[in-house]
């Protein structure tokens, strides 16, 4: 990998292009985590960049994995499905629960009560 | 200054842009999906931070560093991120160094301007000053390398 860097190339500008998310906001979230004292500047940058990669990865995986592909769309249920089915996204199942119709929920509640009665 | 819960969310506009760039052209993304991805991203930051912090604590350090974050990615099974992260970090570090050099240059120029006014009387001492500045710079660079 050869890198041609003309003298007029400003490395500071190139660095700015590498991330879009605001580092300050990411820092806020990180600091809200218990037991975290201080964060090195490089670590802050990496976390921000990783979050961007994560957003891309989640969006694309959910799109490829979900039902929206036929209709060329990405919906909430695609995300919930991916969170449940893909191991690396398991940590999201609490905040991306699958949605069920109220009547289906009530039906399953009834079934559980019947089973308890049998016992 | 109270911390509002909303402040722990990432800006919607940027999240939307990242999503659009990741997906093929023309894919419709529902508002609900966008909001969910944004929340997932915040949770990701927390999870990554907690994981990285464990590595730092294990090494008896109080400051999270780059290695901790990379180790966290591996732990979370996001090895696919490691290469692009390392590459981005390289560019970032060069940028930081560039910024430092630019501000160093500006400082030197300012000093030179001030010196010009005293030039006639301090002509002999100027050479020594430059040498001192160069030695300071080299020392600083050395320190940087140690930190990184």
TrEMBL record, chain A:
Taxonomy of the source species: Eukaryota, Metazoa, Chordata, Craniata, Vertebrata
Subunit structure, interactors included: Heterodimer with POLE3; binds to DNA. Component of the CHRAC ISWI chromatin remodeling complex at least composed of SMARCA5/SNF2H, BAZ1A/ACF1, CHRAC1 and POLE3; the complex preferentially binds DNA through the CHRAC1-POLE3 heterodimer and possesses ATP-dependent nucleosome-remodeling activity. Within the complex, the heterodimer with POLE3 interacts with SMARCA5/SNF2H; the interaction is direct and enhances nucleosome sliding activity by the SMARCA5/SNF2H and BAZ1A/ACF1 interaction. Within the complex, the heterodimer with POLE3 interacts with BAZ1A/ACF1; the interactions are direct.
PANTHER family, alphabetized: CHROMATIN ACCESSIBILITY COMPLEX PROTEIN 1 (PTHR10252:SF54), HISTONE-LIKE TRANSCRIPTION FACTOR CCAAT-RELATED (PTHR10252)
Coiled coil: none
Function noted in UniProt: Forms a complex with DNA polymerase epsilon subunit POLE3 and binds naked DNA, which is then incorporated into chromatin, aided by the nucleosome remodeling activity of ISWI/SNF2H and ACF1. Does not enhance nucleosome sliding activity of the ACF-5 ISWI chromatin remodeling complex.
Keyword Nucleus set for record: yes
InterPro entries: CBFA_NFYB_domain, Histone-fold, Transcr_DNA_Rep_Reg
Listed name of the protein: Chromatin accessibility complex protein 1
Cellular compartments annotated: Nucleus
Automatic annotation (TrEMBL), chain B:
Gene Ontology MF term list: chromatin DNA binding; protein heterodimerization activity
Pfam family, one: CBFD_NFYB_HMF
Disordered as annotated region, ranges: 94-148
Compositional bias segments (type: Acidic residues): 124-148
SUPFAM superfamilies found in the cross-reference section: Histone-fold
Location(s), subcellular: Nucleus
Residue stretches making up the Transcription factor CBF/NF-Y/archaeal histone domain: 9-73
Keywords: Acetylation, Coiled coil, DNA-binding, Nucleus, Phosphoprotein
Biased composition (Basic and acidic residues): 98-123
Main location: nucleus
GO cellular component labels: CHRAC; epsilon DNA polymerase complex
GO BP: DNA damage response; heterochromatin formation; leading strand elongation
Top-level taxon in the UniProt lineage: Eukaryota
Matches recorded under InterPro entries: CBFA_NFYB_domain, DNA_Pol-Epsilon_Subunit, Histone-fold
Subunit details: Component of the DNA polymerase epsilon complex consisting of four subunits: the catalytic subunit POLE and the accessory subunits POLE2, POLE3 and POLE4. Interaction with POLE4 is a prerequisite for further binding with POLE and POLE2. Heterodimer with CHRAC1; binds to DNA. Component of the CHRAC ISWI chromatin remodeling complex at least composed of SMARCA5/SNF2H, BAZ1A/ACF1, CHRAC1 and POLE3; the complex preferentially binds DNA through the CHRAC1-POLE3 heterodimer and possesses ATP-dependent nucleosome-remodeling activity.
Function: Accessory component of the DNA polymerase epsilon complex. Participates in DNA repair and in chromosomal DNA replication. Forms a complex with CHRAC1 and binds naked DNA, which is then incorporated into chromatin, aided by the nucleosome-remodeling activity of ISWI/SNF2H and ACF1. Does not enhance nucleosome sliding activity of the ACF-5 ISWI chromatin remodeling complex.
Protein's UniProt name: DNA polymerase epsilon subunit 3
Annotated organism of origin: Oryzias sinensis (Chinese medaka)
């Amino acid at each position: 990998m050869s890198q041609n860097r003309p003298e007029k190339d400003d490395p500071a500008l190139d660095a700015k292009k590498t991330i879009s998310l605001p580092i300050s906001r990411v820092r806020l979230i990180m600091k809200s985590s218990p037991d975290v004292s201080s964060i090195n500047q490089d670590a802050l940058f990496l976390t921000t960049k990783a979050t961007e990669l994560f957003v891309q990865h989640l969006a694309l995986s959910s799109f490829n994995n979900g039902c929206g592909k036929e209709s060329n769309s990405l919906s909430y249920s695609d995300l919930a499905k991916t969170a449940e089915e893909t191991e690396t996204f398991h940590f999201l199942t609490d905040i991306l629960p699958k949605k069920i119709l109220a009547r289906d929920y009530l039906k399953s509640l009834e079934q559980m009560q019947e089973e308890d009665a049998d016992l | 200054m109270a911390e509002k819960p909303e402040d722990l969310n990432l800006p919607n506009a940027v999240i939307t842009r990242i999503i659009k760039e990741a997906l093929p052209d023309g894919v419709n993304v529902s508002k609900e999906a966008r909001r969910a991805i944004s929340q997932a991203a915040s949770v990701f930051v927390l999870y990554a931070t907690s994981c990285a912090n464990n590595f730092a604590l294990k090494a008896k350090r109080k400051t999270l560093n780059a290695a901790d974050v990379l180790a966290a990615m591996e732990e979370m099974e996001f090895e696919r991120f490691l290469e692009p992260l390392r590459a981005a970090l390289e560019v970032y570090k060069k940028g930081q160094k560039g910024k430092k050099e630019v501000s160093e240059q500006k400082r030197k120029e300012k000093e030179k301007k001030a010196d010009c006014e005293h030039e006639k009387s301090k002509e002999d001492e100027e050479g020594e000053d430059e040498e001192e500045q160069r030695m300071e710079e080299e020392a600083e660079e050395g320190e940087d390398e140690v930190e990184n």
